[in-house]
Amino acid sequence: QVQLKESGPGLVQPSRTLSLTCTVSGFSLTSYGVSWVRQPPGKGLEWIAAIWSGGSTDYNSALKSRLSISRDTSKSQVLLKMNSLQTEDTAMYFCARSGYYWYFDFWGPGTMVTVSS
Amino acid sequence: NIVLTQSPASLAVILGQKATISCTASESVNKFGINLMHWYQQKPGQLPKILIYNEFSRAPGIPARFSGDEAELNFTLTIEPVEADDVATYYCQQGLTFPLTFGSGTKLEIK
Lengths: 117, 111
Hints:
The structure holds 2 protein chains of 2 kinds.
Chain A: E1 3-7, E2 11-12, E3 18-25, E4 33-39, E5 46-51, E6 57-59, E7 67-72, E8 77-82, E9 91-98, E10 104-107, E11 111-115
Chain B: E1 4-7, E2 10-13, E3 19-25, E4 30-31, E5 34-35, E6 37-42, E7 49-53, E8 57-58, E9 66-71, E10 74-79, E11 88-94, E12 101-102, E13 106-110
Parallel strand pairs in B: 2-13
Antiparallel strand pairs in B: 1-3, 3-10, 4-5, 6-7, 6-11, 7-8, 9-10, 11-12, 11-13
């Protein structure tokens, strides 16, 4: 069955770089897109970045200069890097699958990232 | 960017009655005759779940109590009759253009 699972460091110091991994199973990254979506504690959902089935990428314009999304199809993984982290980046980070109409039909359980010294 | 204005921010409904949540898009989200507006439910402490995609199509396993509609860029999620298990925050999301955007959410409570 379709599954996604995020992994990350949990705690990151301010100004450092965050690296997150989304490992998927039950589908191919060359057939579906994958996005990263985050949710600060008690707040709403914010789309961050996406990688299409063909490999092209899109980013939240407000965060674009700090972001990089890539994939390793041999490992069924999507990677997200975000640099210059600030306390405002503290959030639950989800990866989610999308098809042609860009809605998220399957989500990972999320990984909490806390930015603190 | 397409801005989605969602209202109300919170809503209290009597069990068995109707809940109506609105999401107004700043511009068209239509692609080849399909409105790429999607709705999610997020229960406390859980991850979001797709309810409705492409304006009115229910995701697998979603009961007919949940329905979507549109009138002049104003999209509506209706839940009728409301059940206790529907306590959650509901979000709209457009899938037409990047950056993908979400509404700010509507918290549904039982009165």
